[in-house]
Amino acid sequence: TTRFGHNKRMFNIRRLGDIRVKFAWYVFPKFYMRNIKEALEVVISEHVENKRKIGQLRASLIAREKSPLNDKKYNKVFIQFKDSFQPHLFSQIQISDKVNELDNTLIFVDPQDLIWENLSVQSNAFVFARVILANTFSVIVILGWVIPVAFIGLISQLPYLTVLIPFLSWLNYLPDYVTDVISNFLSVVLLVCLSETVPFIFRWLSFLKCKKTGAQVELDVQNWMFVFLFIHIFMVVTISSGLTVILESLVNNPVSIPNILATNLPKCSNFFFSYLLIRGLSYFGNNLLQILQLFKSIVTNPFRDTTPRRKFIRLTSIPSYKWGSIYPTFAVLGSIGLIYCILSPLILVFCCLSFVMVLLSFKYSLKYQFNLRNVSENYGRFYPKAIFHLYSGIYFMEICLLGIFILSRDELNQPNCIGHSFITFVLLIFTAAGQIQIQKMFNKLLSKNMPLTLYDPDMNEPEEYELQDLEAGPAAIAKRREEDHNEAPNENLFNDTFHHACFQHTNNLIWIPSD
Prior knowledge:
By secondary structure, the protein is an all-alpha fold. The protein is built from 20 helices and no strands. The protein is globular, with a radius of gyration of 31 Å.
């Protein structure tokens, strides 16, 4: 019956193709239509051959599922449990006594989140080489971005830049509103555009590291993105912005270095006032207007939708956030607020205003525009990692305070803040000890493993159909039960949840236009 239905479908496809070819035979030149007919026949023959190969591979998978003992060995295995308690238990058990064997487990993985290209890699040496190569490129990206970001920092101090570089003195003859726009807004816009291209690079490098799921990719992107943004958005911009101020004063008065640092370094906060405000306004406006999605739907999507199925999937799928590149951005903004809250307390007002706008826009977009269920789900591990990233800002603030207290002098050029320096040094040690203790206490709880004492064996988890019934209503329940009753059991069915889509039972149908 299956072979007869397959041949009948193939006959309908050929007949439809012949009708379209014969109709266009008298409209278009014959040589052009001859090429179309030949191409159609080739596509049909390839489809029949591919379907035959997939059937053979599926049969071998079914045989392997029923008799798992075979000659070929793999370094990965999928295990499915009937209870949610058992994967938590088995993932915490040390199975093998050998080093680097059966010690890496993933639980509650979404099949759609799997990266099949990385799962198929069997050589551990090849994976190690790819990880070393990807980490090397990540360091190169971080170091290589210093030059353009430093140049943007110099633009923010345009009046001092023209004094140091006489070649740019013609900028002083421009109107004041033009120089203000260049120094305040143009530098911020260039910095934002330069930073937005980095997440795509780090995601590709995380894929190169043979990460098995998109969730692992996002966690890796979060770590590298924070390091990148903290170095470039804060450190490089601060040094390059203050460098012009410091050098100009050193040329005129090279003796008073401590006074120059204490007087002029807080001026670097002017750039971050603008950066925080514009960053908050840009996120607020982009989350509400969705300019990027509008640009894709008008410009890029018509070229990407090569088939009706792709267009249908795009129109019916709800986008979701890539949290791996979102959390580091606001962790760095929070670190900047912590660092400058003593030198320039006014920055706290800009921080609060920016974060409030971002919070309102995210609440709106998550409720009306974006999908709450993310395929690359990490079960809340982004937030505590971002909290630990804020410690970088606290450390940097305490180190800067320690340096300012050590350099402080009175009228007799004697140090007058020795006590303050000692207290700040002790505070730095206590901060590091507190963070180490907090991570030691909560690291295991912040993993995917649920504490076994929280498991209630008497509480039965609702099945997927039951959750759908609660949302659908009594009419849908009766219809589904009738469909389940009319379904005939198939003995060839096997558990194909974690097989590739082409080997699963729910095959996609071929869409053929009727006009």
